[in-house]
Amino acid sequence: MKLYEVPNNSKVVLKSTESGPPASIDPEVGEVYTFKHVDGMYSLCYNSQGQVVHLPAWSTVEVIPNEWTMHCV
Fold first, then answer.
1. Whole-prediction pTM value?
2. Fewer CB within a 10 Å sphere, N or C end of the chain?
3. How do the domains of the chain map onto residue ranges?
4. Sheet bearing 52-53, strands edge to edge
């Protein structure tokens, strides 16, 4: 799934990407990110250390279902 298709405030695992914008933290494939929203070509995400990472909106990701929604199904 492409990042721009993911609902805001989701947890995602990065499957593949290109680098982010200049002077930003480079995304790491396999890392879990908290995706907040897409802002133009890039997104606002937080890595597991709480650092801001701007993943490209076209990055391939896998959504991690949250525990609350899993118990409601």
1. 0.84
2. C
3. 3-72
4. 52-53, 42-46, 32-39, 10-16, 60-64
